Amino acid sequence: MRVPVLTRAAVAAASAILALSACGGGGGASSGGALDFTDTPARGGTVTVLQNADFSYLDPVRGFDGGVNNFYRLVYRTLTTPAPGNSENPSEVVPDLATDLGTPSADGLSWTFTLKEGVRFEDGTPITSADVKFGVSRAWDPELGIGSPYARQVIDAPEDYEGPYRSGPLDTIETPDDRTIVFHLKEPFPEFGSVVAQNTFVPFPEGTGAGDEFINDIIASGPYRLESYQPGSSIKLVRNEEWDPETDDVRAAYPDAWEFVIGLDPATIDERMLAGQGSDVNAISASPSILPATLARLQSPEFRGRTIELPNVCTTYMGLNTTKEPFDDVRVRQAVSLAVDRAAVQNASGGTRLADIATTILPPSVSGHRDFDVYPSEGHRGDVQAAQALLDEAGLSEGFDMTLDIRAQPRMQAQAEAVQQALGRIGVDVELNVIDVSTYYETIGKPARQHDAAITGWCPDWASSASTFLPPLFDGRVITEQGNTNLAQIDDEGINARIDEIRAMTDLEAANEEWGQLDEEILELAPIVPLVVEAIVNVPGENVTGLYSSPGAASGGIDFVLVGLRDPERS
User: Fold this and answer.
1) How many CB atoms lie within 10 A of CB 494?
2) HSE on the CB side for 418, CA within 13 Å?
């Protein structure tokens, strides 16, 4: 899942839930009273994060999922960045390394940014415009650049450019002095000030980061540096003494250190968070939500006082590979869309408290969302008769076999099994291909390795909402050999033309209305099957506070940059 954004109303609601959900009666494990998880933390101590799978990549041109994006904010900086979760408008993008959101030229084909004074790498070396240029040019490397695609899509570059290690400097990015950087674009892109908040714009000293250099090590520009990393086991971050808080209005950096404990079974994480013993009073879970099997236990008064609930902004969906038979036939894709039992998927996701049924691509919290259902059925259980009629028309009355890629995570596998059972009603035999969580996105992002379908999720990448939701998933011109986000691999001239038409609109409100209409037009072609919008329900350690939803950095989850401890001496 990618980085999300909430509407202003949804952000306000999410923040309110964080503040109020801990006041429903009862107390923390040993606090004797309700907890306010938005209290300002004290400075010091170590926050522990319990997580099932390792991060995809420490290298920011490779990683592009919600969990690692949130981690990146602790160790890296970019020209701009999502606002912190406690700001007046957490949906906006704000200056980070840059002094402002950039200045476009009169024709919109170039953007100029000025770096702040006093920004440094962890070794004390000043961060210069040349470092920013080198860092972003790494996104063109055919082996490394599998993360955020926006730099390659928007910045002008020779067709044969393959990054700094193979092709040298990128001439379409100029650095007239140490603090000034100028980007030349393929065409005007009014939201370029948000593009430079993407992970691919992290600066690095020239010549660093080739090959796998950043697999187990990094060069920090944020408030923390990497002290140790045991892949699949643990990560320890400590303060970066060269980070100057006077240059950073986003990262509060309350803890002295962060410890990420990796490789834990999700059920173990739930048990540890509920028990809240020992150092786990200082812990949070990296999982978006508790397991469905744990949900009923939250009714106990001892947990109601420290349960947080947040609305999610990401759509969980099943992408259908339109390049493979029989999914190259729209009738077959429509039949699958009709047959899927979304209510069963919702139950597999934990029921109504943990998931809402999705019938649209854009979730309700995203500007441009419209309520509609192209494939209606009673109780969202699926219309088997209508689905079978379409298969008959397509010459597949006996059904067919297909392979569904799925993450090795209990909730995701339960969702896949619900799809498997539903499609069995129309003779479709679904084989589940279970892929390790830490490599899942890299695997399904390679068209050559994709099977017939995959279950995943998507969230918009910055506050323009739908403009970063539909194009990455359905623009046929952005299909790439690695890091591909158009999992359906649909390349439809009508969709591509509509994307260009809407992107050219200068009235954002009117554009959002058109994105909502395009949502329905796309689903008529059934390249994906929207399944659910999952909520976030978790139980933090009672000594943790500063918990705010992060619309732009953590898939709607807790924003790491504000987290800290009430009492740093407690363990």
Assistant:
1) 11
2) 26
pLDDT at 20: 38
Q: What is the pLDDT of residue 79?
A: 98
CA atoms of 74 and 424, how far apart (whole Å): 46
Give the tokens for residue 331. Answer: 């009738």
Q: Pick the closest to residue 306 from 335, 339, 330, 283 (CA basis).
A: 283
Quote the tokens at residue 496. Answer: 């591509």
What sign does the CA torsion over 462, 285, 251, 259 have? negative
Q: How far apart are CA 445 and CA 487, in angstroms?
A: 7
Cross-strand partners of 110: 184
Q: Which residues of 515-539 are buried (b: 16+ CB within 10 A; e: fewer)?
A: bbebbebbbebbbbbbbbbbbbbbb
pLDDT tens, 169-184? 999 999 999 999 999 9
| DSSP classification of residue 155 | B
- If residue 74 lies in a helix (H) or strand (E), which one and from where to where? helix 66-75
Rounded to whole angstroms, the Cα distance separating 462 from 464 reads 6
301 in the Ramachandran plot: left (φ > 0), alpha (ψ -120 to 50) or beta? alpha
User: What are 497-502's contacts with CB under 8 Å, separation 24+?
Assistant: 499/470, 499/471, 499/474, 499/475, 502/467
Find all residues with CB under 8 Å of 509, minimum gap 6, and list them: none
What is the DSSP track for 102-145? -EE-TTSSEEEEEBPTT-B-TTSPBP-HHHHHHHHHGGG-TTT-
- Asked if residues 291 and 410 have their Cβ atoms less than 8 Å apart, the reply is yes
Cα-only R_g, the chain: 23
HEC sequence for 429-492: EEEEEEECHHHHHHHHCCHHHCCCEEEEEECCCCCCHHHHCHHHHHCHHHCCCCCCCCCCCCCC
Q: How far apart are CA 120 and CA 491, in angstroms?
A: 43
- pTM for this model (two decimals): 0.85
- Tokens representing 200? 């691919």
Report d(CA 462, CA 6) in Å as an integer. Answer: 9
- Tell me how far CA of residue 440 lies from CA of 256, 428, 459, 521, in angstroms: 32, 24, 17, 29
Residue 541 CA to residue 533 CA, distance in Å, equals: 26
User: How many other C-beta atoms can be found within 10 angstroms of the C-beta atom of residue 345?
Assistant: 26
Residue type for position 488: A
What CA–CA distance (Å, rounded) separates 481 from 448? 7
Tokens linked to 425: 């009603």
Beta bridge partners of 45: none
Helices 410-424 and 330-339: crossing angle, nearest 10°? 110
Q: Where are the beta strands (DSSP E) in 358-435?
A: 400-407, 428-435
pLDDT averaged over consecutive 10-residue blocks of the chain (571 residues)? 39 43 32 73 98 92 85 97 87 94 96 98 98 98 92 96 98 98 94 94 97 95 98 97 98 98 95 95 90 89 85 88 98 98 96 94 88 97 98 98 95 96 98 92 92 92 76 94 93 97 85 95 98 91 90 70 96 74
